[in-house]
Amino acid sequence: MNRGMDWRLPRRWQVGLMLFVLVVVIPAALFGIPVDSAAPEPVPFEDTRAIGVASAEEVAADDTAAIPRVQVFYSQYQYVIGYYGLPTALAAITEPATRQQYGHPLVTYVTDYSSTTPSVGDDGRIDTERYPAWTAASDAVFVVDSGATTPVGEAIVPFSDRDDATAFADDTGGRVVSWTTLSEQSFEADDGAVVRDRVSEQRADADAWVANRTELLDRERSVIVGSDDDLQTAIDDAPNGTTVAVAPGQYPGSIEIDHPITLRGPGATIAGDGEGSVISVTADRVAIQGVTVTGVGNQTRNPDAVAGDTWDANIELGYGHGDAAIKATGANDTLIADVTVPHTPANGVLLRRSPGGVVTNLSVAGPEDWHDGFMGVIAMYSPTVIEDSAVTDGRDGVYLHRSDGTVIRNNTFRENRYGVHLMYSSETLVANNRMAGQEYGGITVMTDPTRTAIVGNLVRNTATGISTSGSNAYIAHNGVTDSRIGITTTAINSLYEHNVVRHNNQGMRTGSVVATSKVTGNDFIANDRHAGASAGPLRVWRGNHWEDALATPSGRTAERAYMPTDPVDGQRHRSMARRTVAASPVYQGLRELTGASPGLRSGSILDPDPVEASQNQDLVETTETLHTDGLAGVPATPSPPDR
């Protein structure tokens, strides 16, 4: 039978022609329209996607002249990126990943200190007589080594007029350099790797902090209080630096400790009358150990408290003046150890403007409905070590506000709204905690702090296991299971490594439109979807293990990139049919197009170097035990220091 001539091209030619159309013709049609040669005008800085300073520092540095700023228009990104500080900008601009995700800089603008009469104050802050305008970086000169500083390090000060720059350099001892010279220098970004390197030091500092406060338990005993004695009188009469020992029994509260003593009472119950706080501390270096506290008032705010004039005065009024089992105000270096609060309708421990405290082996229970309770531990303006404690029910296990440097470690949180809730608190370490059953989130970071470390935590059965925010964070060695979202990667310029997300609806999710974080060495196992992304540039995550990402219909292991947000790739671990589609020439061609044309890869995640085997096997097994047995299957690890 004569079938005529077969005009079909050989298979390899078909694939080649298809790739030519996909990679060359379509991108030319989509992106080949000439761009107006005129450079875009600078925008107000608040309209940029800003990188470099946490929100709390922004409030403190609200003078727009105090920090030289940069804004960059990139060729493949719809938003203008703003940078606080020239070093931050230059570190980003020269980073190869920036070019891959955003394209090349079309134009860079810097704040112009010409005609502002700048000077450097005794605190290193730049002062000016008027706000700086914007000028193109390529037309500017820069003063370095002037002694000017910002919250992100040394200030490099731009000028559009060389004479103005020279005058400023002469006044401050600095020197003038060009944009070209500056661009050739090497700048290191303050990113999550820096925070990683600080974790061991931060743990050691916390150990020393706890050891120092624990010495308060060694004070000489001055009095033994029996059940027939008046506890408040004994406290008032005790000499400074001594111990009031309380015999087992029940003692009426409320009581106040207004001088530096230690109150020790294993087996003793201090019972409030249901009005106000039960124990109030208003002096430095007070220790409370071993007591049980009942009868806490139910007020979560004080209507008689007077608002201050700070930007966060209303936050303090709303959160920092409620009732508590133990309340410390203006009391530095407080120790609260081995205390039990069997029920509180308000707070367990409240620390307000009381830095240097230690809360250890505290047990707090709140109302089953968190709407009816408040915080297990709340620290406002009070860097604290909170360790080896348990908070069940109530609103938040631990709530921080402007308590930079707090360490929250080796605690257990059950059935709260949030397990750990950070607000305006930078340089915080959240380590080796266990939590389950939170309604909204296990560890929740809000208000854009910087240099947060979240390490070694286990989270089960919540809406979002670990929700990040801010910048320069380190999130590592955490296990999250049975949650709607395991971990969010919203904190920018951060490092997410060696985490295990298993049995979640979505393993990780990125919501930041600024893709500056590194996500590497993580294990994604048995999730409905391993990862998801909102609109934004391509996010490149490298060297992660994605369950069955490299499996093929033939059973062999593929050597290829993996895109968990792709409708085909993202379900390879769930469907043999998807693996078959993924191996087809058409799909492979579309993948080539996605990689070659940034305009077609918005809202995507790509791992160009996926790893076949799990990289965190011990944590994988622990997370599986957490999934099957709950917190009972993963005992808490106590803090290491001897006491």
From TrEMBL:
UniProt keyword annotation of DNA-binding present: no
Domain Periplasmic copper-binding protein NosD beta helix: 384-548
Pfam families cross-referenced by the UniProt entry: NosD, NosL
Top-rank lineage group of the source organism: Archaea
Metabolic or biological pathway: Protein modification; protein ubiquitination
Region annotation Disordered: where it falls in the sequence: 593-618
Record carries keyword Repeat: yes
SUPFAM superfamilies cross-referenced by the UniProt entry: NosL/MerB-like, Pectin lyase-like
Keyword terms of this UniProt record: Repeat, Ubl conjugation pathway
Protein name (database record): Copper-binding protein
